[in-house]
Amino acid sequence: MTDAVSLTNERNQMFRDLFSGKTPKRVPVSNPATQDFAIQYAGLDLVESQWDLTKLEPVYDKFCQDFKTDTYPGGSIRIPSHYQLLGSTPIIMSSSGFMQHPEVVGLLAEEYDQFIASPYDCIIETILPRLYTEFNGQPGKVAMALAKAMRAHSDDMAYLGTIRAKMNAKYGFATMGAALTEAPFDFMADFLRSFKGISGDVRRYPDKVSAACEAVLPLMVKKGTLPNPSMLGYTFIPLHMAPYLRDKDFAALYWPTFKKLIETLAEMGQTVQLFVENDWMRYLDYLYELPENTIMRFEYGDPKLVKEKLGNKHIISGFYPITLLQTGTKQQCVDKAKELLDILAPGGRYWWQADKSIINLEANGPVVENLKAVLEYVYENGVY
Amino acid sequence: MLGGEETMDSKYYLTWEEYLTEHPELEGKSTQAIASKIQKYEDAMFTFIMDLLL
Predict the structure, then answer these.
(1) Is residue A322 assigned to a domain?
(2) Low-confidence residues of chain A, pLDDT below 70?
(3) Phi, psi (deg, nearest 5) at residue B7
(4) How many domains does chain A have?
C-alpha cells in the first residue's frame, strides 16, 4: 500500500469516527481557501484560468502541497462556461474574474400559486426564462443552448473531477462525496423572490410562503440526495435567511420544512453539513432538535455556548475568523486557533474549518503565511 | 434514482415507470439496463437545472 493510500484510509477513518460521534485520532482539518485563491496563489489570471481549466492541475498541485489539509481544497460549482452559454443574470463573472450573485427576482409575487401547483414546471416554464436569456426564444434555439451548456458543464466537472482524483491519489486526502441543496425557505429567497422580496412576502403573504416551502421540499430532498447515501460524505446546506427573520416567522415559515429536509436526509443515511451563516445564537434550541451528528459549521456566535448546548449531540465546526488572517500577526492567528481547539475539541465532535471561505488573495499580504501557520498548528496539536 | 421524485408531480421529470408508460415500445426489452440509463440522464438534467438556482 502506498503512503498516499494509507493516508487516505487513515483520514477516511477519522471522518467516519467524527461523523458517527466517536472521538477521532485527531481533529480533522480543512483548508478554507477556494479555487479562486489557489489560482491567485499560483500567480495566474483568474478569468483565463476559469475558462481554460487545463491550467488548473499545477495550480492545485502547488496548493495541495503548500497547505496542510485532510480534505481536497478548493473546488467550485461556479465555472463560467455554462452560465455564459445560457445568458445568466443571477451568476455573472465580474471584471476581475470572481463569480458574483447579484440580487435577482425569478418569481413574481403573483406567481406563487403557479409555483405551489408544480414547482419544477414553474422553474422550467417561468423562472429560468426570466433569469437566463437563452431560455427565451424559439424552442430549437433554447434546446441548442441547453445542450451546449449542459455539455460544457459536464466537460468542466469531469475535468475538475480528474484533477481531484489525481490530488487525492498523490496527497492522500479523505475521499468524500458531497451533494448541495438548500433549506426550502432559503431556496425561495435566493434566486426566486430575492432578499427584499421574501422579506415583504413574510408579512404580506405568509400562507403563500409556507405553501411554497412545502411544495418545493421534495425537490430540495432530491437535490440533496447522493446517489449512494453514506456516512462518509455529506449533503452541504448553506443557511441564509433565518438571522433576518423575527422569531415567530422563523418558527412558522423557516423551521418546519428545514427540519423535515434534514430529518429526511438523515433517515436515508445521509450525513448533513449545515453552513450556519451569520449569527444563529437565538436558534440554538432549534438546532439541538436536528438528528444526531448533524455537522454545523458556524460563521459567528459564541463557541462556548454552542459547545455547551450542542456539543454533546452534534458536530461543531467553523468560528475561526478568516479576517484575522489578514489583520493579525502569525502569533495572534495561532493563538486564536488554540483558543478554539481548547473550547471545541474536548470530547470530539469537532472539525476544524474557518468561519467562511477565503476567495481573494492580496498580493504580498499576510494571509498565505498566517493560513499555513494555523493549518499546521491545528494539524499538529489537534491530537486526542 | 434519487429521493423525493415520487412527489415532484412535473411534466418535465419522469420516473422510469412514467417513462415506460409513454414508451410502450420498450416493454419486454432489457428494461433493467435501459431504465438505469434513462433514469441517469433524467436525474442529471434535474441536478443541472436545480444547480442553476443554487
Answers:
(1) no
(2) 1
(3) -115, 20
(4) 1
Residue A74 lies in a domain: yes
- What the block records as the C-alpha cell of A179 is 451533494
**What's residue B8's pLDDT?**
77
Question: Which residue in B has a C-alpha nearest to residue A192's C-alpha?
Answer: B53
Residues of chain B whose pLDDT is less than 50? 1
Longest Cα–Cα distance of chain B, Å, equals: 40
| Long-range contacts of A19-22, Cβ-Cβ distance < 8 Å, separation of 24 or more | A19/A231, A19/A232, A19/A234, A19/A271, A19/A293, A19/A295, A19/A315, A20/A231, A20/A293, A21/A292, A21/A293, A21/A315, A21/A348, A21/A349, A22/A348
How would you classify the pairing of strands A295-300 and A272-279? parallel
Give the closest of A121, A192, A221 to B10, CB-based: A121
Grid cell 411554497 — which residue?
A: A212
Rg of the Cα atoms in chain B: 12
Give residue B4's pLDDT: 60
Instruction: Please report whether residue A135 resides in a domain.
Output: no
Q: Which positions in chain B touch A88 (Cβ < 8 Å)?
A: 52
Whole-number Å distance between alpha carbons of A90 and A333: 36
* pLDDT at A74 (0 to 100): 79
Domain-embedded: residue A64: yes
Give the pLDDT of residue B6. Answer: 62
pTM, full prediction = 0.95
Q: Rounded to a whole number, what is the distance in Å from the CA of A236 to chain B's nearest CA?
A: 12
Residue in B8, B11, B51 closest to A219 by CB = B8
- The complex's ipTM? 0.95
Relative to beta strand A233-239, strand A295-300 is unpaired
Query: How far is Cα A326 from Cα A67, in angstroms, rounded to an integer?
Result: 17
CB pair distance less than 8 Å for A150 and B8: no
Strands (E), chain A: 92-93, 99-100, 177-180, 233-239, 272-279, 295-300, 315-318, 350-351
Which range marks the domain in which residue A64 is found? 29-81+143-171
- B32-38 own/partner pairs: CB under 8 Å, 24+ apart: none
